[in-house]
Amino acid sequence: MSADTAIVAIMSATSPNVVKPQAPPARFFLVAPAGDDIAATKTKIASQLAPLHATVSALSSAAPRDLVITIPDRTFVGPAQGAFLAAHALEDALGLAPIEPELIHAIMPIDQLDDRRELEAVEKFPPGCWVDEESEIEQNKSWAVSRLRLQDAWKLSDELGRPSRGAGVAICQIDTGVISHPELAGVVRAGSYNVIGDGTTPEDPTDPLNYAGNPGHGTATASVAISPESLDVVGAAPKARHIPIRAIENVVRISQTSVAEAMDRAVALGADVISLSLGGIWSWALQRALERAVAADVIVVAAAGNCVGLVVWPARFDDCIAVAGTDFHDKPWIGSCRGPTVAISAPGQNVYRAAATTGRSGQGQGTSFAVALIAGVAACWLAHHGRGTIIAEARRRKETVQEMFRRLLRATARKPAPDWDSFNMGVGIADALALLQAGLDAGIGIEAPRAPDMVRRGDESLRQFALEAFGPPALKADVDWMKFGGETSLAVLQQKLRGTAPGLESAAGAEVEVPLKVRQALEAVTDSSIAPAIRPARSDAGQPADGRIVQLKQMIAARHAAERSTGNLESAGAGDLRLADAIDLESSLPPDAPMPHPDDILQRVSAVMAAMPPREIGDPVAFGQALEVMYRHGGQALSKLPDVGLGPPQHFAASERMALEAIVIADGSRPSFLLENGLPPASHPFLGIWAATMAARREDIQRVAGCVGRVQPTHGNASNFIGTATIVDAARGLALTNYHVVDDARRKWLIPMTANGNRLSIPAGLEVDFAGEAATLDQRRFKVVEAILPDGFGRGFGSVDAALLRLEPITAGDRLPAGQVHLDARAAFANGGVPSLAVIGFPGPAPMSGGTDVDWNFVTNALFGNLFGFKRLAPGKFRRSLGFDEHDTLGSVFGHDATTFGGASGSFVLAWTDQEMPGFGIHFAGVTSDTNSAIAVAKIADVLRKLEVSVA
């Protein structure tokens, strides 16, 4: 294949590097053949790819033949399949294989919920396979260290006069970087680096905490490994030295190439142990970097992975030590990946760790923490014997330090129960005391070490992966596993991920198929019953149109019909159309109702966006990029809408569905208004069909809005808050919110609370601010002194997700806002008796970025100027009657479609057109592209009355 063909393939797999802010350039990894002149090879490749302004450089100084092709002006944003096709085209053009694209991908979920219906507290976790926090751990915060018998191991070293607690040993953690944290105070740095290049200096590993997906992951894992014995968290090796390397911007979105570069950097900085609390797909770059680290006498340990079942890479590599996770009772953690490549297990469920976003500590789960603990165990072992002694003894036994440590770790492991799953969870749980007590020959008769000069195929981990994924016949398949390793592993792991954590897919377009050649080879040796498992559905086919797509079509068609009857809805005559008529149009239009041309819709959106107030635009460049992305994906989706409900099912890709959601927000069909002095804007391009009603109800809106406050930690702000609360009894200082807002304040923000029956005393740390508007820095803060929980309280569906907050002034003489919101228990409201409604609260940024090739989080947030955490009013429509959700065992939840973005928990759902705007529901959850959920006051009225709350 010619270089021109490869260039065409690269161009089709990439887009200009402006679709996402600061998107990484397209990169490919390859290895120059042994014996070739490296400089000549680099020059030749750069010449062949000159039209793309490609550069060719070494991955690191330690690997001059490991080359990276960088296309600075392009970035991978299309389907991941295209990136692999481009790599194969390069292989043919350059005569080199394998060549792998650098894909920012998500295969290892971190600290996430096990249900896609997300409670809309600000600090939500994406879906996963997680357990609740455990109260017994609060009385035994160092339980994980105890389970590994580390305190006994430290005591042994002390008694023998040897270095203990990992003293003098350098642990390198390749992660998101670290911040200054009380739990890390006193830790000695042995070096640092920032592979990403976003630090103030090349050596600055500071984690900016400016991303979703568990910010501060590097700080949390560091504390588990090396935190001194001073506060709540006790590290496994509290006297070890620390080498933090920032190599990933978000632990659930990693680049194997960057991690490989970081591993070389770790060796150069003198790391004795490398801890990898991350995981992803097979990578030739990472495999070679791992081999170099092991050859340099470094111990490398990695997380087995979370929630996808199969062990991920780099833990899966033969050279690596894979660590699975266990719980407080020495049982396997439910979310731990497992398989024959796991070497050892360690605590991973609700391990106490530092919380970077709060500056405190709390429980965290995942094999990320299990591997950090084993890194500390390795440091204690090296310190106890002396690294020089260990290296010499390993040489004498013709094994690497890595192999010696693995052998001894397994030989001294503690098997917690007779039925322990040794095949999938390793031989047992690590025992640090037994490890230090053991002679260096322990286990030699149990497992034979591999000599460093032993001939290896290089695809061992991929062949084992194929065996686990496709069954024994796969080993007979005629497949070049290394050539197709990246895309095969991504396809299989994504399929596993969709089964337990939908929406967490590759940033590069995600769904890929097992390559055709691999599929054909597998089908040649397997029967038809196995074949479906290796044929994942194509993502570009999308999903058939569902009820939500029909609703979106009705909204857009209704707006078109309304404009034709009243003129442009952004004109002064917008009030000529009654709100009730407009809402009725959305439900009554037949499937064949006239639809505007896609260009007309996008032109209307463009006109609305052009009229946005400058303060709500924020960054004009980001705003423009967001519009461009919405137009590009929205045009295709809009062209399919006319046929929805009329003929064969129309299929919508995830990006198209998200584009339609963005359009109905951005054209004013489902707007969200910032409030100023409790009032919505008198003039705004979003007003549209809502203009007349909002103009008539301004006094009512101002009265209700004044009673709505932002629940936050002490001195919180728009970027650090928990939910919304609304005054329901001003005389007694009572405000109503969700129970899960209180629960999050206790568990995630670590705000102290003591229980006495259904009452939680809150001595300090929690407040409600009844100002919180974007246009002012004014505050109106009151401290929360007590949370009163109703009978049947609990989180989300099937529970009474409500709580009363008792407020007191922070400063003597402060008065709560006058008035209160009246609660209305009319069941008719919760069954659709009020077709239009409104929500007033404090939404956080929209969680819209999962499972597509576009960062919809960026798009939506940019279109709203990133002004979140401020008081907003969002009008909408009643959608689903009581009991619509199968998980709602109490029959107390109804659905609505007001734009709540994320984090609006505790906001009242108000009867928009009824007298005094009573609250008839409490918003608590939402699913993007589906329905927001609220608990009906009608169903909890008696419970609230028992708390002496007035309910009409």
From TrEMBL:
Organism superkingdom: Bacteria
Keyword match Protease: yes
Xref: CDD domains: Peptidases_S8_S53
Domain Peptidase S8/S53: 166-427
Matches recorded under InterPro entries: Peptidase_S1_PA, Peptidase_S8/S53_dom, Peptidase_S8/S53_dom_sf, Peptidase_S8_subtilisin-like
Catalytic residues (UniProt): D175, H217, S368
Alphabetically ordered keywords of this record: Hydrolase, Protease, Serine protease
Classification via PANTHER family: CEREVISIN-RELATED, PEPTIDASE S8
Family: Belongs to the peptidase S8 family.
Name used for this protein in its record: S8 family serine peptidase
Species whose genome carries this gene: Bradyrhizobium denitrificans
